[in-house]
């Protein structure tokens, strides 16, 4: 027979369980906070705000908050430590993954529940529009003549942008000045203004300045030219190997805190998948030079693990060589 105490305990646990089940079944009952761990105006911010109206049509009202710092780890720490109820999400990136892979943050990938990949973004080497260097070969020749004095801006340290800035200097055979910023929006502003001599950025965060002639693209860190920039050569075709230690990829993806209830995770996956697959978002991605490569749930988790391991191998050799 149940004692009075155990009976009360059972009733309390039953009520809590019913309340939790109800909360999950009615998700989302309020606005969802989406943490972009980079400055406003950068590529990840652009992506998040492009998804906002499409998600709202599907019952997910998303409030975007920018919380930059430490190559994305400050904002992502907030996501990792949030209540795992689906109301706090964040934009993970390969840049923050690089910090994790290199042990520069206590954050771990298993602190997140992976929802959906939003984009893959090949990186480009850019110079100011006023730069005298018209080609990749011209710029590398300039670096050779001025060892250790050419500055290359990147959004953060020890990430893919930093890796490719280092590989650019490696192609020239000289040292360079690494100029890290808290986001791509600040890099492109200083590059267009001539405060730095070059930058490694995503096409999306430099598209407007490229179209206005404020900056110029010299090379793409990829195996093939980008369809949106058919006149910009790859480093590979110019004879420079920027993947000597293996391929690495820059991507952006949606995460929630770990231990997210399965029903809530499914609703988020369905909502983001529908928004990313919407033709209007595809058109948005095309206009802003993003590449869409859908991946969700456990398949995304496996890809994040693979990319993190690849970055770890490459970073160890680039930054210690």
Automatic annotation (TrEMBL):
UniProt KW keywords: Signal
Presence of the UniProt keyword Cytoplasm in the record: no
Pfam families to which the protein is assigned, alphabetical: TctC (PF03401)
Signal peptide from the UniProt entry: 1-23
Record keyword Signal present: yes
InterPro entries associated with the record: BUG, Bug_dom1
Coiled-coil region: none
Family: Belongs to the UPF0065 (bug) family.
Protein name as annotated: Tripartite tricarboxylate transporter substrate binding protein
